[in-house]
Specification:
This protein is of the alpha/beta class and 199 residues long. It has a 5-stranded parallel sheet with strand order 2-1-3-4-5, sandwiched between helices. Helix 2 links the parallel strand 1 and strand 2. Helices cover 58% and strands 13% of the residues.
Length: 199
């Protein structure tokens, strides 16, 4: 019984990946182009999310600053939830809703990208981050599920929204991780050229 339940997780995850590959490839490709314009112009990516999405933001920043699967020059990226002093200080002064917006206004500028991730898109701190990014003339790349919620509603036509058409949190997070890997791989391929798979 337990083994069947575990196997079903693998099957459900694989099924969703197959179902969404064609749907999500176009907005992911648009997000890659936005990231390329940003990093080749000397810009930076500010990434944020809450809970599991905060961890995904840190994973993305590590892959950009360090490396994804092959050596390349460093790319500028910062996970906004990673600095506990800034996060708690901002929350103490203005409440948790403003923790990302304040950082975006402090660190972001024209040509930069805000990468914002949310399972349901209804987090007020992420909405404030998007508003701040628009004030700073940044491009917003939003990754979400559940139709994007209010986050999807405030994104502009010039922003890019990658929305996973699913309701289950675990499945959405699995796809968001895959989307981040697609972004990192495609940026590397565009900057360094295609590479044959060795593993």
């Amino acid at each position: 019984m337990l083994e069947q339940r575990i196997e079903q997780h693998f099957i459900d995850s694989a099924d969703l990946k197959y179902q969404t590959a064609q749907i999500l490839s176009k907005p992911i490709a648009a997000a890659v182009q936005a990231l390329l314009v940003c990093v080749t112009s000397g810009g930076k990516v500010l990434a944020c999310g809450n809970g599991g999405c905060a961890a995904l933001a840190q994973h993305f920043a590590a892959s950009f600053v360090g490396r994804f699967e092959r050596e390349r020059p460093e790319l500028a990226a910062l996970a906004l939830a990673a600095d506990s002093a800034v996060l708690t200080g901002a929350a103490n002064e203005q409440g948790f809703a403003g923790v990302f917006g304040r950082q975006v206004r402090a660190l972001g500028g024209p040509g930069d990208v805000l990468l914002v991730m949310s399972v349901d898109g209804n987090c007020s701190n992420l909405q404030q981050a998007i508003t701040a990014a628009h004030e700073r003339e940044m491009v917003v790349i939003g990754l979400s599920g559940h139709g994007g919620g209010t986050m999807g509603q405030i994104m502009r036509d010039t922003d890019i929204h990658v929305d996973v058409p699913h309701e289950r949190t675990a499945r959405i997070l699995e796809i968001l991780m895959l989307v981040l890997h697609c972004l990192c791989d495609a940026v590397d391929a565009q900057l360094l050229g295609e590479q044959e798979e060795t593993r």
